[in-house]
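B., you asked whether I could sanity-check this one before it goes into the benchmark set. Here's the sequence:
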Amino acid sequence: MSVPTVERVEQWLPVAVGDLTGALGDSVTVLPLVVALGALTPASLAHVLVGFGVFQVVWGLRYGLPLSVEPMKALVGLAIAGTLTYGELVAAGLLAGIVLLVVGTTGTLSRVQTAVGQPVVRGVQFAVALLLAQAGFDLALGEPAVAAAGAALAGLVAVVGYRQAAALVVLAAGTVWTAATVGVPTPALPAVSPFPAGGPTLTVGAVEGTLAQLAMTVGNAAVATSLLCADLFDRDVSPDRLARSMGGMSLATVPLGGLPMCHGSGGLAGKYAFGARSGTANLVLGVLYLAGALVAGLWLSFPMALLGTLLGVVAVQLGRVALDTDHLPLVGAMGLLAVATDVGVAFLAGLCCWLVRERWLA
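And here's what the prediction gave me:
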């Protein structure tokens, strides 16, 4: 009786070289953002990495696909830029988790997607990109020479054809430099406790951030990821099912010091591009994240100017995606309005403009 079970496991989680290299596809987006968050906010990087490690394994086993597990970029980007406090990030993560769980359970995701047009999503992405670029520039001013060296390294990586890996290479270089100068800390497991870095702070800003994040999550994480699962793997994974996964994942990790997380389509495409074809890639990456959590204190000494370069590279990558639209005036206006005011105001203004256009001007 054990043979069929083993065969099913081998079919669900095969061992292939592509899955080993493909594991890195998700980390291209995740690691630069979470390291920046750990360095610039009270967030505990060790707890954050544990959350990512655990759910990489969970979804690899559950779906048998190299499903992405990424931070909710709008919320994390706003926290890195200082637009949201850590307490507001926690509150927004819990709110987003509740909404996604409810929406996924009731099957109302398609109606939400219809109301929020893709240009509005792109506008939120562009706004976050501008705020990250602004934060990165401020950090780079501390040591311009270090920041310039990081930018040159990122440019070199892009020129040789690995543009998507530029941020990860800069992060790796900074990590090696930090380890050589301050040493590697003694491995230690983070303590399990409720809200180890601080509890939720419910404010208007937290609610606005949640709305902006949900605009991105519905289209780019739930719907787009569902389509990719069908196109790349011939698997029917509904957007509502993905919404339930994301909601439950965020509600489980945020109270324990983790981040609100989603199944980003970009991460799934990245894993596939690096060779991943099964959930084995998730198991590999999950183990690497858990290993990183043991020495998370290393990144607390990461050079701030190089961190500025890192944020700049992430901002450029996010901005390129945001500007891939036929509605550049709306996207650009939302980005500039977010810098002048905040992303919540920009989201609501962009949404109103889009709804007016669709109802009366289309």
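One thing to flag: The chain has 17 helices and two strands. Otherwise nothing jumped out at me.
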